[in-house]
Amino acid sequence: MRIGITCYPTYGGSGIVATELGMELAARGHDIHFISYAPPIRLNYSNDRIHFHEVEVGTYPLFDHQPYTLSLAVKMAEVASAAQLDLLHVHYAIPHSVSALLARQMAVPRRLPFITTLHGTDITLVGRDRSYLPVTRFAIEQSDGITSVSEYLRRATVETFGIAQPIEVITNFVNCDEYQRVADPARRAEWAPNGEPILMHLSNFRPVKRVTDVVEIFALVREKMAAKLVMVGEGPDRGAAEWLATKKGVGKDVLFLGKQDRIYEMLAQADVFLLPSELESFGLAALEAMACEVPVIATNVGGVPEVVTHGVDGYLVPVGDLAEAARYAIEILSTPGRAREMGQKARASARKRYCSNDIIPRYEAYYRGVLERSS
Ligand code: GMT
């Protein structure tokens, strides 16, 4: 198939899922055309079936805000025609599904079906904003196919938007060959020179991630035992987290690495992964940690309970319950063999349900169904 994929190219779960999906599809022989304003962060061009088309947004003094939605629609229609795309697959409804809807109409008489994959905040936060809700609902309803990354998000979409069309749950996935526990003693020694256990967090440091909670939890752990915290990622709340680490007196035990490539190499060195988010429709970073045999302590929100099984491969706590999260971290880290045992169960669970080898064929089958229905 020839597939156009649109996503946010920046540091965020939806862009990462879209990029990994495109690369996996290319490896399976499909031609993939990414259409966005910049190359997605995890994209590599090792396969010549991968193409990138930049959306250029013209500037004009009249515009305070450039109309990206329109430029994207035009580029989608152009690429669809030039590359003879079979379908468009947009990740994150706002505004991508609106652009795809316009592109489909511009492509007439060619049929250009589009699929919208819902990722989370496009429904749970941004999509609820009344300045976006009606147009987002309209574009989702007009989609030729709708998927969501968790059962929770499917339900939330039906409740918030009253969507009547079927929504297929195709979960997020991880490449189980890349994401493995490969020890890197040199890196561990660099982060934890005295053999301290390593707690880790990975996100885009947006308010919804509650990264200051990560630091608070770590400070409680540090009251009881030696440990290090490795913070991977970048975003608006990084400064607040750094300041809090210093204020709590644990600054020298917290490393902020910023954006990183090959994050599986880092996750594989962690002993506990912390994800105390306000909300997660899925929690991709938790899954990536699990595949690397890292037990996860996360908040009991959204789709996270579909991924992490409390007491088996991690622990779930109420949002803001820092003491409970710290208690679980201390239990895991101070009980001999506990981190390894839970970590192995975490990987087993990830392998059983979320390996890309099993999930990508579900997307392929879904595409085929949409094409059959649209012909
Ligand atoms: O988490 C973010 O802030 C980014 C956001 C996105 O759309 O880029 O992530 C959402 O999509 C991810 C991939 O499907 C999910 O794993 C995240 O749980 C979801 N984030 C939220 O629901 C807050």
How would you characterize this protein structure?
The protein is α/β, with parallel strands linked by helices. It has two domains: 2-173 and 356-374, Rossmann fold (3-Layer(aba) Sandwich), CATH 3.40.50.2000; 185-353, Rossmann fold, CATH 3.40.50.2000. It is 44% helix and 16% strand. It is built from 15 helices and 13 strands. It has helices at residues 13-27, 68-82, 93-106, 121-124, 133-142, 151-161, 185-191, 211-224, 238-247, 263-267, 284-291, 304-307, 322-334, 338-354, 356-374; strands at 2-6, 31-36, 50-54, 87-91, 114-118, 145-148, 168-169, 198-203, 228-233, 254-258, 272-275, 296-299, 314-317. A seven-stranded parallel β-sheet has the order 3-2-1-4-5-6-7, with helices on both faces. It has a six-stranded parallel β-sheet with strand order 10-9-8-11-12-13, with helices on both faces. Strand 9, helix 9 (238-247) and strand 10 (254-258) form a beta-alpha-beta unit. Helix 3 (93-106) packs across helix 5 and helix 8 packs parallel to helix 9 (238-247). The longest helix has 19 residues, at 356-374. It is globular, with a radius of gyration of 21 Å. The model has no long low-confidence stretch (mean pLDDT 95). The site of ligand GMT has 22 residues, from helix 1 and helix 4.
Layout: helices, strands, pairs:
Elements: E1 2-6, H1 13-27, E2 31-36, E3 50-54, H2 68-82, E4 87-91, H3 93-106, E5 114-118, H4 121-124, H5 133-142, E6 145-148, H6 151-161, E7 168-169, H7 185-191, E8 198-203, H8 211-224, E9 228-233, H9 238-247, E10 254-258, H10 263-267, E11 272-275, H11 284-291, E12 296-299, H12 304-307, E13 314-317, H13 322-334, H14 338-354, H15 356-374
Parallel strand pairs: 1-2, 1-4, 2-3, 4-5, 5-6, 6-7, 8-9, 8-11, 9-10, 11-12, 12-13
This protein binds ligand GMT.
Residues 12-15, 17, 92, 119-121, 124, 149, 172, 204, 206, 208, 279-284, 302 line the site of ligand GMT.
